[in-house]
Amino acid sequence: MKTMKTGRHAYKVKVIFLILFTFTACTHNKKVSELNTIPSTPQPSSTAEDDYVLHAGDKLEIKFYNVPELDEEVNIRPDGKISLQLIDDVKAVGLTTSELDKILTQKYAKNIKEPEITIIVRTFSTQNVYIGGEVNSPQLIKLHENLTALQAIYMAEGFKETGGLSNVLILRNSGSQKPEIVKIDMKRVMKNKEKDVYLKPYDIVYVPKTPIAKADKFVDQYINQIIPRNIGVGFGFVYDLNRPEAEGARPIIETP
After folding, report:
1. Do the bridges between strand 59-64 and strand 180-184 make them parallel or antiparallel, or are there none, so unpaired?
2. Whole-angstrom Cα distance, residue 190 to residue 175?
3. Residue 153 CB neighbours (<10 A)
4. Dihedrals φ, ψ of 215, to 5°?
């Protein structure tokens, strides 16, 4: 059984992050301009991109090798389900392509002897990531297949000379109020000494200022530049990356 492992979803998602973290930063000894050359072959982290999780709006082609008359293309509906011949509606949203393949194989085994099913994601719905901080053009970027953090930064016109390449952060929805935080040393990535990271839907890539002398200066130097001064370390980060009016906008920060 084969599956397609990449893709995007269309329905609006409000990403809610509670940022509570401490961070030890490195000093920055070279000007960013000396390093502003993207590697021709970035090395993405293999752990960042697993089997693709399906979303509403994805268009699937479902093929039956031994019963081709059942082949069809379906869109995942807003309710997260797909409709196929011979079986009841199946919930697809939130499943990987492999998991959906397994479920369909089990269901069709009641009607077909040894079904062999392939699921191909033919069209991916639009998803965004936000690139901010010390980049030349902070912005929303439409997420495409196998987009890495470094590639996204260059789509935002690259690092400013004040950018802390060793301390780039990815804030990622972890499914709870506390985000998953990924730290990347882009100087090492650009020298092919460290793997780049594939971005996921609604990731926020933040390039901090440099140098960072002390860990207790982290919040003041990084976070307070994108949030109101009256909000402390614990704050509600609310940003709808699919809002039409959000193109070119900065994240919206709201008090908890």
Report:
1. unpaired
2. 31
3. 25
4. -60, -35
Q: How many residues does the chain have?
A: 256
pLDDT in tens, 198-232: 998 778 898 988 654 443 445 444 544 553 343 33
Instruction: Label the pairing between strands 117-123 and 59-64.
Output: antiparallel
pLDDT (tens digit per residue) in 166-196: 989 888 876 666 678 888 999 999 999 999 9
Domains of the chain: 14-48+126-254 (3.10.560.10), 59-123 (3.30.1950.10)
What phi and psi, each to the nearest 5 degrees, are found at residue 97? -60, -35
> Which two structure tokens, joined as six digits, stand for 247?
């193109």
Query: Omega before 211 cis (within 30°)?
Result: yes
Tokens read off for 159: 């690092």
pTM of the predicted structure, to 2 decimals: 0.50
Q: Taking a C-beta distance cutoff of 8 angstroms, is the pair 119, 3 a contact?
A: yes
d(CA 129, CA 169): 13
What CA–CA distance (Å, rounded) separates 86 from 110? Answer: 10
Residues 132-144 as b or e (16 or more Cβ within 10 Å = b): bbbbeebbbbebe
Contact 2, 51 (CB under 8 A): no
Amino acid at 233: V
26 Cβ contact partners less than 8 Å away, ≥ 6 residues apart: 164, 166, 167, 185, 212
